Amino acid sequence: MPAAVELKPWKGGGKWLSALDVRDLTGQESRTDRPCVELLAPLGYLPSTAGDLEQLAREGRLSELAPIWCPRGFRCDAASIPRVLWGIYPPWARSNRAAVLHDYLYTVQPCSRERADALFREALLSCGVSPVQAWIMWRAVRLGGGGYWNERTPEAVQAAREHASRNGGSLEVSP
Question: What is the DSSP letter of 23?
């Protein structure tokens, strides 16, 4: 994990604290051709802040500076984009880190769904996705992500949280 990170507001969303290092498991872990990747190293993201360090301290919001760590070994499909749209929005593109972060937040559920989706949009901007494309992808998860979020049983969420805890993943995200 990084020794020092600049703790003041910046444009374009948060900051990525690590590179994306994955192993492609597509076709190996399932009977479909949907993308499947496994993190070989933790993926870190520091969400943007709404004010300076002193203001956050006065408002009791220092937890917003806590980075989110997706643990080594986490598996996901990256962007859950219908195959018919892959020509326009490939499931593995510039948005890949944001998609992995979003999948992690949906799997472990350390925050509300609304917060997870807002972080996804912010992270897309941090990946260099255009504001229009980031809005479209955010809107898609707002419209289509509820099913997956609500289908997660308490046992499945708990198992994912235990895996994350053993492997250095974040279990809390500021509201």
Answer: E
Task: Give the Cα separation of 37 and 35 in Å (integer).
Answer: 7
Determine the residue type at 50. Answer: A
CB half-sphere exposure, 17, CA atoms < 13 A: 23
The Cα 138–Cα 132 span in angstroms is: 10
- Read off the pTM: 0.80
One-letter identity of residue 145: G
d(CA 105, CA 152): 12
For residues 33 and 95, give the distance between their C-alpha atoms in angstroms, rounded to a whole number: 19
Answer whether 62's CB lies under 8 Å from 46's CB: no
Containing 50, the helix (H) or strand (E) segment is none
Type of residue at 32: T
**What would the pLDDT profile of 107-130 be if each residue is shown by its tens digit?**
999 999 999 999 999 999 999 988
Establish how many alpha carbons lie within 13 A of residue 44's alpha carbon, considering only the half-sphere containing its beta carbon.
13
Contact 38, 75 (CB under 8 A): yes
Residue 78: which of 13, 123, 12, 131 has the closest Cα? 123
Taking the C-alpha atoms of residue 23 and residue 36, their distance in angstroms, rounded to an integer, is: 9
Tracing tokens 């070994």 back to the chain, one arrives at 73
